[in-house]
Amino acid sequence: MLKLEHINKIFNEGTPDEKVALQDIQLSLEPGDFVTIIGSNGAGKSTMMNMISGALTPDLGSIHINHQDVTRLPEYKRSRYIGRVFQDPMAGTAPNMTIEENLAIAYSRNRSRGLRIGVNRKRKQLFKEALASLGLNLENRLSAKVGLLSGGERQALSLLMATFTKPDILLLDEHTAALDPSRAALITNLTKELVHKDNLTTLMITHDMQQAIDLGNRLIMMDKGQIILEVSPEDKVNLTIPDLMEHFQKIRGEKMVSDRVLLAT
Amino acid sequence: MFVAVFGSVEQGIIYAIMALGVYLTFRVLDFPDLTVDGSFVTGGATAATMITLGYDPIIATLCAILAGFIAGSITGILHTKAKINALLAGILMMIALYSINLRIMGSTLENGIGRPNIPLSNATTLFTEISAFWKSLGIDDVINNMLRGIGFEQTPNTWGTVFFMVIVTFAIKFAADWFLKTESGLALRATGDNKKMIRSFSANTDTLIILGLGLSNALVALSGALIAQYNRFADVQAGVGMIVSGLASVIIGEAIFGTKSVMRTTLAVVCGAVIYRIVIALAMQIKIFDTGDLKLLTAVIVIIALVLPRVIDKRKEQKRKAKRKAEKLAMLAQAKKEGETIA
Questions:
Q1: What are the sequence ranges of the domains in chain A?
Q2: Under CATH, what is the fold of the domain A2-96+149-240?
Q3: By the CB < 8 Å criterion, does A144 face chain B?
Q4: How far is A180 from chain B, CA to nearest CA, in Å?
Q5: Which long-range contacts (CB under 8 A, 24 or more apart) does A18-27 make?
């Protein structure tokens, strides 16, 4: 479904600020895979997601979605196949437009936009049904401006919009991190439901280890632009936080040693 | 007085088309487009030139719309493809259009060099055709007799212009309302509201910005073409400060009529344009002002319109707070009293 091969990216190449963001990333997702990604700040998690979504292009390597090479496909064309939810609840919706108008935009993601009216009666019914599944009573506020919704409501709407057209790939970039714990739990549950309902192939970045373990069938850990750990579906079933910590410690420990060696010479 | 106000209503309705164009860029696309000062003249110059060369005024006006669309699209391309800052792209296009407008009008001369103005005093324009048609209906006499009956001494020459322009302007307003509700229109609005979001829903923001600027400047050029025919004069200086008066119309309209929905806002913009022209006309009635002060007046009106809503809001807030404080103090005093009586 999704295949990353030898993805490399260096920011500010040739300047003192040069930073290796991704190093030879290899990742392959089967249809229906739900992969959670953990790693410290600057590990390259978001950079990798931006590569997949097309916001960034790799210096080297190729990206395939559904056996189609999309490496050079611009972001707006690629987003026909990719649904995205961002960390910032404000980022995934248009605040000065109504809930139904936002859904109409999501609805026409994978068809060319013409001069059909965006919100007609038939679609309104569809939107209402979809909103009802969120359980937030948004179905009765179709013509309310999205800017009036709370962060949790906006993120729930973003999630619904991102999955509305059943995209080939769903990218979730720490989409619960900016919410309070109860709202985050709500969004986590919604994520589970929506992904499960359409069996969406999903990549999710999170800082919450428990969430990374609870959700999805696979897990990867990133550090310094590399994938340092891949947990297979069989192993993930019995994975615990201490396991992850141990792996993390082990790898970080080695890194620290190698740093010291560098300093010594 | 009545005739002066009447004239400004006529003009206001024509300028309202320009204001709708400004609304499309400033508000819908969130793009401060200064091309307007140039494209307004481009519209007037194209129409006046073609009319002078003997073309039908309708064809001349349609070509003016096309010229405006092209001008706006180029600004859009400069911004999206050449990555030039929005304000600068507009200013560059505005300056370029100044020379282009001279050249357009110059094509009425044999040597083809630039020409700063074209009078249309004896030419057939849209408005001469309309008023001829209107005269044949005989409605003017009926209305004017009624007006004289209720005590107005001076009456306008023709009501045809106003009726015609109300139809044209409202047709454009309703077309804009409809367009902004279509799938493309929703994507256009989202481009002005949240670019990151609409890109993640497979819309090409570059194309939408170019399209939006094209449509906006097409309306501006139409307004310019109509004003040139209305005034029977096209002038290369006619566009100076046009963007500010467009903005004034948008802001005044929004402040008075609100922005609850797109339909409401476009209506507000049209009414704002008319009100703005009336305010200017009334100001001109005051003897101390000269026509040269017009731009200064416009700037002051825009500043007032920008500041006033905030001042009013602050006042309301202060009043509310003062009231709450007074209530709280009264409650405390009451509680204290009760406490004393119990003691």
A1: 2-96+149-240
A2: Rossmann fold (3.40.50)
A3: no
A4: 23
A5: A20/A224, A20/A225, A21/A47, A21/A225, A22/A47, A22/A48, A22/A51, A22/A58, A22/A225, A22/A226, A23/A224, A23/A225, A23/A226, A24/A61, A24/A226, A25/A61, A25/A225, A25/A226, A25/A227, A26/A227, A27/A2, A27/A3, A27/A220, A27/A227
